[in-house]
Amino acid sequence: MKNTRNSLTVIALVVAVALLTASSATAAKIVIEAEHYRTISPSMAKATSQVASGSAYIHIPLKRPHATTEGGASDTGNTQYKINVPQAGSYVFWGRAHWYDGCGNSFFLKIDDKPSIVFGNDGTYQRWHWVKGVRVTLTAGPHTIRIQNREDGAKLDQFMLTTNRRYVPVRPEKETKQYLIPAK
Amino acid sequence: MITRARPALLLSLMAAILLTSLHGVSAADITFLEGELDGDYDVVADARISSPAKLDARFVLDYQESGDHYSLTLAGGKAQFHKVINGKPIRIGTAGDLTPPPDGAETIPLTVQRRDWRMALVWGDRVIARAYDSSLQRGKAGYIISAGGTFEEPMIQPVGDIFITDDFVREEGGASAWEVGAGKWEQRSIRDDQQAGRQEADKSANAFSYLGKAAGDKPAITTAGHWFWDLYTMQAAVKPLDDKAVGLVIYFQDADNYLAIRWLGREHPEGGKLQVISVSNGRPHTIGETPGGFLSNQWYCLRAAVAEGMVHVWVDDGLRLVAPTDAFGQGKIGLYTESTKGVFFDDVACGPWELFSEDFATQAPGKWQTLDGSWKQADGALKAAGDQRCIITTGRKAWQHYEYSINVQPTATGACGLIVAFQGPGDYCLLRWSLKGTPYAGKAQILHVAGGHETLLAEAPVILPQKTSYRATADLKDGLVTLAIEGRPQVEAFDPGLSAGAVGLFVNGAAGARFDNALLEIIPPQHTSRIVREFTDTSKHPEMAEWASTNAPWVKPESEGRTWWTKGDYFGDHALVFALPNVGSKTGSLNLIIGADSPQDAKACKLIATLKSGSKDIAMALHRGGELIAEGKATAKSARAKISFERRGRWLVVLLDDQFVLKADTASPQPQAAAKSSSTAP
Predict the structure, then answer these.
(1) pLDDT tens for each residue of B323-370
(2) Using a CB-CB distance cutoff of 8 angstroms, which residues of chain A are in contact with residue B172?
(3) B25-48+63-147 and B164-192+207-353 agree in CATH topology
(4) B627-635 and B554-555: which strand pairing?
(5) Going by fewer Cβ within 10 Å, which terminus of chain A is more open, N or C?
(6) SS3 of residue B345 by DSSP
(7) DSSP state of B613
(8) Fold topology of A27-179
(9) Distance, CA of B229 to CA of B330 (rounded, Å)
(10) CA B557, CA B387: separation in Å to the nearest integer?
(11) How many C-beta atoms surround the C-beta of residue B413 within 10 A?
């Protein structure tokens, strides 16, 4: 009887470990509200909107004359985030963006010390929509995300990193605050 | 025996507890999936099966707390939707045959689509089952596998708005949302002078475009959008540089599997024609075509819409081709060319599309709901089975701005009719006609049924063709309801309370009347002409002559206080929309004029909107040919009021801030008291 119980315990543990392992192998999804930055520097700014997730977003305010900052050399306004990536893997970067026009539809995206890359440049203007960005390999643990000015009139509500290649966000996603490392 | 059973029981219990904590499973038999289920969604998985006949599985959709749900049963080699109420399954929709995975594959992908009132199963590369019901609210989704296989990587994919536009305003070589599937694609600016950097993108026209070139025999394809898009319309401006095929791609899976609109130039060796092709494993198959090619070096607007297994194709707003197909059932949009010289693409737009078609060839329980009397589907038609009043309905209550048509084979006596704007058993619009045997014999009528009470909106003598069967068409456009038979207008009415709803059929005293080939198409939104300054100076900007509009501009009057006229001609229904500033702080009047041949035209329809400082009330007066035909008053919501002065059929309609204010019947010889109305915008 005792042997049976021991066997049961072992089997149960094996099953539990197997299930937990299977669970941890499922796709990872990190969703961060853009206004939950660690640091912000002008001309990047925070703004409020009822249609933005969390009622707030970040943006490069529209300038007059518009579209004179492309290239971003003179204005490095940005927000920075520190996130804790739960598992190593190949992640797709998505951003919920709102573009003013064809000259206000991108940011620079910099992950850790990798080179800055252009995020956006699609042609859907004047409405919030999810924009697919780069695929990036991340280790488990802390990483830094930097969103930087490239064009005025560009807004960002949320960004998401996911290992699920097939999943496409279509509405505001529930924030995963547990992966956001707050400033000390 | 007991000791063997206990560990199994314990393990099951532990597994259930662990699954509960990890995946939110709450019912013993169903593996529920996590995901957002507020709106439309897909359940996606790869089915690993040895034989479709051995599979015994079920997908559960919209599972309610009461246990009611929809189910998709995959058993006995068939797929069939059911609605399960109080534990009792009721078959809904059409069934389909399950096929084995393709050669060399161990799994077959599947997508269960749940839309507002539609359900469908995409099995492999085909839609094999459809069903229609919206009586259950959104609930949990999951699956059960009893035998014969597994579902790998199941997940819920929410389906949001289908929307994408691109005017290609970006630097050459810049990143974009387009993914090249084949060929060479590059951003191009027609202008290359020193002015090129000064484009103002908020003026819709621009000099940027997208150039695609085929490499060898394989067509060039570039794609955008998402894999789960299913009911949509897409369009693009295209300018072919030679007679090789140009086109649009829909339901793109990969570079060897997609549907395409393929349009050949007049001088193409195959002859000029427009085709819908299905490409499967790289092999094209024509599923529809019509003669007529393009002239190279001209801009055209090519548009395609896909829904319910039907592909519609337009060229410059003219419907040219309709082709049926159940292939793929979902997929991205794309641009297509077989030209190695190239094709310019511009102004791509993609949005949702709605289509409902019914040939009554297959029983689809649940698709039509009998409201009154009895109906029978047989011999590929729907028949009224009794002499009493019979009504049957189908569709979504959210449908608006549509054309609904059906073939009617009436009986000698009694009445037939169509129903639009159906919101419930006591709330709909009935368009009926009768030759004899009814109090309204010889007439076509439009009635608004509200709260169960009928109000006659309009009637006219009915003129029917001398044949046993004819096509009846009802239009519903923002309160304007019209009935046509064999394309001949019969009667029309305007009621601002009729804007949206499902459709149906009506018969009274005409047992045996037959209906067939129902079709509902959403009428595309009209083009908007934006106010732009007229471009006249091509000496400094020669490149502008190529793309500046000559139709849209307003022509500035020679002196202040005179009338601004548009340069273009506007036919059919149209709306002149004007934003009126300083409401409440200015005194004055605004005259809006439509239907004028010239500035001196005395028969022009004129709306005079009068404002007084200190009030947001706006007095409206409608004149035609110099005579007052209707007047009213409304209150603006804010200091900036939007006035819309519209022609809808024979009606003139005025809206303030999208709220109905007044209407006038232009066919009426004298001003009518009924046409005079006053309302206040809330």
Answers:
(1) 999 999 999 999 999 999 999 999 999 999 988 989 999 888 889 999
(2) none
(3) yes
(4) unpaired
(5) C
(6) strand
(7) T
(8) Jelly Rolls (2.60.120)
(9) 5
(10) 65
(11) 14
Neighbours of B47 (CB within 10 A): 24
Tokens for B489, please give them: 């207008």
Q: Amino acid identity of A44?
A: M
Q: Cβ contact (<8 Å) for A124 and B163?
A: yes
Contact A124 B164 (CB under 8 A): yes
What is the C-alpha separation between B87 and B382, in angstroms, rounded? Answer: 30
Q: Which residue has the tokens 């001398």?
A: B466
Nearest residue to B415 (alpha-carbon basis) of B431, B434, B402, B400: B434
Nearest by CB to residue A122, choosing from B6, B166, B206, is: B166
What residue ranges do the domains of chain B occupy?
25-48+63-147, 164-192+207-353, 360-522, 569-675
First CA to last CA across chain A, in angstroms? 55
Q: How do the residues of chain B divide into helix, strand and coil, expressed in percent and rounded to 5?
A: 5, 55, 40
Residue with token string 């709909």: B428
Q: Which two tokens stand for residue B648?
A: 């809808």
* Cα–Cα distance, B472 to B483 (Å, whole number): 7
Q: Which of B11, B164, B166 sits opposite A11 (nearest CB)?
A: B11
- Select from A19, A118, A168 the Cβ nearest to the Cβ of B175: A118
CATH code for the part of the protein at B360-522: 2.60.120.560
Average pLDDT over residues A153-167: 96
* Token pair 């028949």: residue: B383
State percent of chain B over pLDDT 90. Answer: 66
- Which residues, given as ranges, of chain B have pLDDT below 70? 1-27, 36, 173-174, 189-207, 525-553, 560-561, 568, 599, 668-682
Statement: residue A17 has pLDDT above 50: no
Chain B residues whose C-beta is within 8 A of a chain A C-beta are 3, 6-7, 10-11, 14-15, 18-19, 22-23, 36, 38-39, 44, 155, 157-161, 163-170, 174-177, 199, 201-202, 206, 208, 226-228, 348
Cβ proximity of B155 and A167 under 8 Å:
yes
Looking at this predicted complex, what is its ipTM?
0.76
Q: Considering CB atoms only, which of B3, B18, B168 is closest to A16?
A: B18
